[in-house]
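[recover] target loaded
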């Protein structure tokens, strides 16, 4: 496995939170702040309001040499009714070394739990999936090959 990272979900507060974390930990955002309007068009995404388009779609702040703090503003319509509340807003993100490793871990972690997003190709990853295990822990699995996070 390449890395274990932390992914935080917010409702409209990601930019403020990450500016705060940057002031605490230092460093620079990897690739800047990506807003939903910056995402490539996708048939999977429903139309977004102008306010939603300006929310943070993804931000990454390196914490030392081997960890990344990542975050997003959750848009309920994109997450099929998912409502962010304290307790479900933190995910453990595994960056795997291969598609096979992602599939193995995802299969085992989601067994007896709940699949939030099936493991599939996305514009940022060869394979990405999200699930909640049978103990209520939220996981995201990424195989990005050499793509930035």
């Amino acid at each position: 496995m390449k890395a274990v990272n932390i992914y935080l979900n917010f409702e409209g507060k990601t930019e403020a939170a990450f500016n705060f974390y940057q002031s605490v930990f230092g460093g620079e955002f990897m690739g800047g702040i990506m807003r939903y309007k910056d995402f490539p068009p996708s048939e999977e995404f429903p139309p977004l309001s102008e306010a939603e388009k300006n929310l943070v779609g993804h931000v990454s702040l390196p914490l030392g040499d081997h960890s990344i703090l990542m975050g997003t503003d959750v848009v309920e319509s994109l997450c099929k009714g998912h409502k962010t509340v304290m307790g479900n807003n933190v995910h453990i993100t595994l960056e795997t070394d291969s598609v096979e490793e992602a599939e193995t871990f995802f299969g085992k972690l989601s067994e007896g739990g709940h699949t939030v997003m099936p493991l599939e190709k996305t514009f940022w990853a060869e394979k990405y999936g999200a699930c909640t295990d049978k103990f209520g822990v939220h996981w995201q699995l990424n195989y990005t090959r050499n793509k930035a996070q």
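[recover] notes: Helices lie at 14-25, 50-53, 99-110.
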